[in-house]
């Protein structure tokens, strides 16, 4: 997609593995710049567990900020009123890294990013089963909003193999309204509601994650996101199921305005150090081995076809030296919707009817970029977490459709969201908790059936005075209040 090439050198900041990851800018907005943090409520950054407890005890409202990667105001608090309303970052807290090699778990603090976690896991022989694309976000923020990577599909049983980051959580510790630690553990009451809870149960102070033995990843790139070649969208849609069954993880960047299959990314997992060879083409789309242009303005080359260790390969940008912090602002507004994987081909045809019209340059964009900057397709295994957007009502797997919309025209981007939602409603699609959409809170929560009621009851029991709810959370938990 031509617009991708324009997303170069638009973000700044960097860090070293194992150091606290912070943007070079003050935390005055979220990553995209579309949510302003109130000037009268500076982000609290406690330096010890005791000061964190004191902050929570003394506040009337507490909302976690993480790295501000959410595109919705789930982290903000009010700008007026006499109460002590706190936006909270745990990124300055002392680091916790308790590795249990025999149990294949690691317990970390609530402020650690994936960049830091990857650095600390390196050389231990253990790793994460899967990761999302970007390493700069906190683990707590990722798991509490259902952040995900991608999967392939087993041809034998027809199920996706890999779930979201949230399913890797074995236990987590939060602070209750009195500032006391409370643990939720897998298999115990309330755990399935506590993992994806977007701060409504209090700040996550520790997380225990499942690990797996280290493995290598062969990443095979076919096609491109630019105008260099053209491969009809039908090449992708007609071979969708065989594609998913050919790899352990699949990600596709579709160029809808050009009705082009775009760039197909297939990842194959194998034993460490054992060479794997990619196919020379995928259904006539040639293998790409040359360096690709930087994506998302990191200033680094988008990884081309290569083999490496899991944590060096599953993240788009992480290497052995450093990670990436995005700032000051992302050039896009993100939408993401999840539809049943069994309906993937029909859903993609529905998206084509809308997104194929989004190639005209946006008048207010000085770079002349179109409304749709990119669209990424990924697959996620269903799970039993109450508020998992990457799971169907009957526990099935999903296709995740992510759209990077040009933020130069917010109104047009939201019109695009409405058009997508109208097309995808027939598939009972669920929007991503942390990304933009135009559905009402009641319409979203209705998608979760009885699980939503159980979550509301869990929050009421844990936080009866609603200390951990802001306007965004209240509008979802109590839409008629």
List the helices and strands and how they pair.
Blueprint: H1 2-5, E1 14-16, H2 49-58, E2 61-64, E3 85-88, E4 97-100, E5 105-109, H3 114-121, E6 126-127, H4 139-144, E7 169-175, E8 181-185, H5 191-194, E9 204-210, E10 212-213, E11 216-223, H6 233-237, H7 240-246, E12 249-255, E13 260-270, E14 281-282, E15 285-288, E16 292-294, E17 301-302, E18 306-309, H8 310-313, E19 322-324, E20 332-340, H9 344-355, E21 372-380, E22 398-406, H10 410-424, E23 430-431, H11 441-446, H12 449-462, H13 471-477
Parallel strand pairs: 2-3
Antiparallel strand pairs: 1-19, 4-5, 5-9, 6-10, 7-8, 7-9, 11-13, 11-15, 11-18, 12-13, 12-21, 14-15, 16-17, 20-22, 20-23, 21-22
Helix pairs in contact: 9-10
Tell me about this structure:
It contains 13 helices and 23 strands. Helices cover 21% and strands 24% of the residues. The longest helix has 15 residues. The protein is an alpha+beta fold and 481 residues long. The protein starts with a helix and ends with a helix. The protein is globular and about 60 Å long.
């Amino acid at each position: 997609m031509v617009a991708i090439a324009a997303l170069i050198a638009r973000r700044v900041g960097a860090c070293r593995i194992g150091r606290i990851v912070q943007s070079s800018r003050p935390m005055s907005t979220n990553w995209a710049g579309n949510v302003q943090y109130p000037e009268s409520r500076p982000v609290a950054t406690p330096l010890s567990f005791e000061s964190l407890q004191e902050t929570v005890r003394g506040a009337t409202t507490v909302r976690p900020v993480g790295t501000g990667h959410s595109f919705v105001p789930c982290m903000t608090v009010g700008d007026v009123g006499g109460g002590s309303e706190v936006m909270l970052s745990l990124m300055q807290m002392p680091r916790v890294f308790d590795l249990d090699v025999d149990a294949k778990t690691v317990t970390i603090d609530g402020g650690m990013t994936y960049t830091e976690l990857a650095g600390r896991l390196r050389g231990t022989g253990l790793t994460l089963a899967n990761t999302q694309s970007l390493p700069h976000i906190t683990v707590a923020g990722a798991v509490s909003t259902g952040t995900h990577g991608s999967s392939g599909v087993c041809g034998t049983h027809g199920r996706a193999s890999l779930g979201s980051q949230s399913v890797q959580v074995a236990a987590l510790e939060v602070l209750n309204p009195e500032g006391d630690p409370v643990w939720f553990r897998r298999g115990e009451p309330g755990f399935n509601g506590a993992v994806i809870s977007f701060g409504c149960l209090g700040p996550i102070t520790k997380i225990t994650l499942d690990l797996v033995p280290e493995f290598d990843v062969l990443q095979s790139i076919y096609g491109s996101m630019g105008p260099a070649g053209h491969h009809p969208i039908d090449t992708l849609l007609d071979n969708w199921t065989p594609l998913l069954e050919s790899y352990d993880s699949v990600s596709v960047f579709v160029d809808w305005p050009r009705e082009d299959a775009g760039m197909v990314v297939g990842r194959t997992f194998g034993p460490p150090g054992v060479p794997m060879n990619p196919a020379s083409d995928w259904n006539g789309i040639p293998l790409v081995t040359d360096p690709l242009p930087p994506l998302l303005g990191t200033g680094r080359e988008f990884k081309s076809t290569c083999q490496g260790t899991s944590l060096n390969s599953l993240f788009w940008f992480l290497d052995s030296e450093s990670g990436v912090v995005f700032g000051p602002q992302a050039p896009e507004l993100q939408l993401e919707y999840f539809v049943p994987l069994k309906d993937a081909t029909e859903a993609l045809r529905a998206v084509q009817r809308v997104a194929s019209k989004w190639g005209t340059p946006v008048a207010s964009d000085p770079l002349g970029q179109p409304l749709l900057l990119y669209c990424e397709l990924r697959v996620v295994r269903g799970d039993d977490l109450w508020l998992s957007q990457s799971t169907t009502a009957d526990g099935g797997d999903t296709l995740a459709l992510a759209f990077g919309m040009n933020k130069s025209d917010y109104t047009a981007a939201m019109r695009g969201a409405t058009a997508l939602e109208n097309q995808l409603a027939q598939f009972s699609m669920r929007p991503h908790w942390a990304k933009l959409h135009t559905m009402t809170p009641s319409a979203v929560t209705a998608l979760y059936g009885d699980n939503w009621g159980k979550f509301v009851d869990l929050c009421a029991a844990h936080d009866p005075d609603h200390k951990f709810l802001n306007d965004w959370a209240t509008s979802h938990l109590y839409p008629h209040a």
